[in-house]
Amino acid sequence: MPLLDVRDLSVVFQRKGTRPVRAVDGVSFTVEPGQTVGLVGESGCGKSVTSLAIMGLLPRRGNKVTGEVRFDETDLLKLRPQDLRDWRGRDIGMIFQDPLSSLNPVIPLGLQVAEVLERHQGRTRKAALKQARDLLDAVGIPDPDRRLDEFPHQLSGGMRQRALIAIALACKPRLLIADEPTTALDVTIQAQILTLLKELVDDSGTALVMITHDLGVVAGLCDTVNVLYAGKVVERAYRHQLFAEPRHPYTHGLLQSVPRLDVDRGERLHQIRGSVSDNIPWSEGCAFAPRCDRVIDDCIGETVPLEPTFRGGALRCTNPVPQEVPA
Amino acid sequence: MSDALVEIDDLKVHFPIKSGLLFDRTVGYVYAVDGVSLKIKRGETYGLVGESGCGKSTLGRGLLRLVEPTSGGITFDGTDVRALSGERMRLFRRRMQMVFQDPMSSLDPRQSVESLLIEGLKAHGLRTSMHEKLRSTLDSVGLPASALSKYPHEFSGGQRQRIGIARALVLDPELIVADEPVSALDVSIQAQVVNLLDDLQESLGLTYLVIAHDLAVIRHISDTIGVMYLGSLVEEATADQLYERPLHPYTKALLSAVPIPDPLVEDRRERILLAGDLPSPANPPSGCRFRTRCPWSQIRCAEERPELRVFDDSGQRVACHFAEQILSGELRPHEVRAELVRPAGDAAVDAELIPTQGDLPTP
């Protein structure tokens, strides 16, 4: 039974006087206990809005969230805000992209970690601070005793992100959602944080939803990858499958367009023409059609369905990249 | 050396740290660029790579004298750039132009594309057949002539970056310094801009200094690559050589940290994980700047600062006392304890730093 079962999740931004925007458009995916699932896509594909909707963090005003988010058989979308608060931080942890804006600048670090423990596990301040010290130590922050009384601005970006991870994992949640956790960091620090995340997830058996635009990060970390485009899942596959044989022209194009360190330098990069704003609405066909090299007449007209492939994979394309015939 | 378009000799850019309410006292310096020497050949692409805070952007700006270097020499096509004053410097800048990271903040939102492009031409007194020039420049960056009457907000990120490139190109420069030209763009758009830069170099014979933090992109577009760490060059080699045989421990770590979009490779890779963070450039470590995080560091590294020296016949240059021993495997890596690094020290430091663009993309 999946730990998290997102079914037909849609988020529509509505504002007076403007056309409603479908940021997330019927996204479904599941996360098994202990599994790492990636949500990959470029800006505007709805990956971050998906994570905020799962956590119930979107403002109530101006957003319409429909569908189901079943966490351990409970539909999180149906919970009252005060009840959802019991789940957030205890069963589901979240790490955001920019650690400086997600930490409170005027509260010492120790208290920010301890707060979670006091709220969810009923610890006393003293016991919680003691545990906070151990947590900071576990995420590799040097000299944790002194760090407890320090403020976020006194730490470097990598250390702040470690502190955020400590907060997210304080109550040993069963699910961790990481929204671009390394995008604001340098590559060497990114490698540190990814290694740390991998270790913590492996040790504790926490399931991880990894949201990123970086295909390289996904390749090293995720079991299953969902590729999002314009609010819909366009391809889902096991990571080895996805990277070896991408079927959707968008996935294929993305993988071709990034220069790689481990292959010889080619003459030119493959490029996907146009930009994300050149989409057509999904109701009129495939949103990617105007940019697609493999576009055929069938792509325009009606919504392309997400068809299951094998081993839990799925594909939304009428003219996919052909599979190589095994020799 | 007649084939070098640009020669930088022991360039230093130090920013004073001031303190005090009424009278500014200089209490120290941020050693943003601290003794860099390099040559950029005519028609080649020199890639400068390093993490945020290593001084790569400051070096690019120092080269164009957008920030005044503290000391050192810059020679551009035989002219001593640092000796030029006022008006002559202004006119000289026509030959070296800059493309910035974030096209949204480097293009004035209230100027139409036409007025953005024409500004440079007017400043340099090139008023003859201006409109033909604008059209042909826009055409070369792949934008229609109808773009002239539009404003920056009407374009997508990739198109805006094309406008930024057009603005640099319109003056027919010889050198273009591109500071993180693609890092603010989406992956599918990055390839378009990288290819465009490639095409322009081929058709116009441009020389590039490309500054970026993304090693894969740098490797793709550069002929020669310089790796910077805390204000100085630690290694320099041709693109292929650098990736085939990185000599400096920092280059090794940097290369091993870049994620590769292939699970088969990722599962088998060995990573050199660096401990801790970049030390503060206001208070750099003694000796080798990298020694506090280097898994191969020795006592000598703390006492003597390694010079950038030619390693062998390939022309590869490296600033490490023990490059040979590390390459042969004679010296084994040891464990490094992370030292805590304060971000930029106190508030006074922040106030005196020039505002530069952040190094990393906003997704």
From TrEMBL, chain A:
Pfam families: ABC_tran (PF00005), oligo_HPY (PF08352)
Main location: membrane
SMART domains on file: AAA
Subcellular location: Cell membrane
One GO MF term attached to the UniProt entry: ATP binding
Keywords: ATP-binding, Cell membrane, Membrane, Nucleotide-binding, Transport
SUPFAM superfamilies, per database record: P-loop containing nucleoside triphosphate hydrolases
Family membership noted in the UniProt record: Belongs to the ABC transporter superfamily.
Record-given protein name: ABC transporter ATP-binding protein
Lineage: Bacteria, Bacillati, Actinomycetota, Actinomycetes, Micromonosporales
Automatic annotation (TrEMBL), chain B:
Superkingdom per UniProt: Bacteria
SUPFAM superfamilies linked to this entry: P-loop containing nucleoside triphosphate hydrolases (SSF52540)
InterPro entries (alphabetical): AAA+_ATPase, ABC_transp_ATP-bind, ABC_transporter-like_ATP-bd, ABC_transporter-like_CS, Oligopep_ABC_C, P-loop_NTPase
Keywords from the named record: ATP-binding, Nucleotide-binding, Transport
GO MF annotation list: ATP binding
CDD domains named among the record's database cross-references: ABC_NikE_OppD_transporters
Alphabetical list of Gene3D superfamilies matching this protein: P-loop containing nucleotide triphosphate hydrolases (3.40.50.300)
Annotated PROSITE patterns: ABC_TRANSPORTER_1, ABC_TRANSPORTER_2
UniProt name for this protein: ATP-binding cassette domain-containing protein
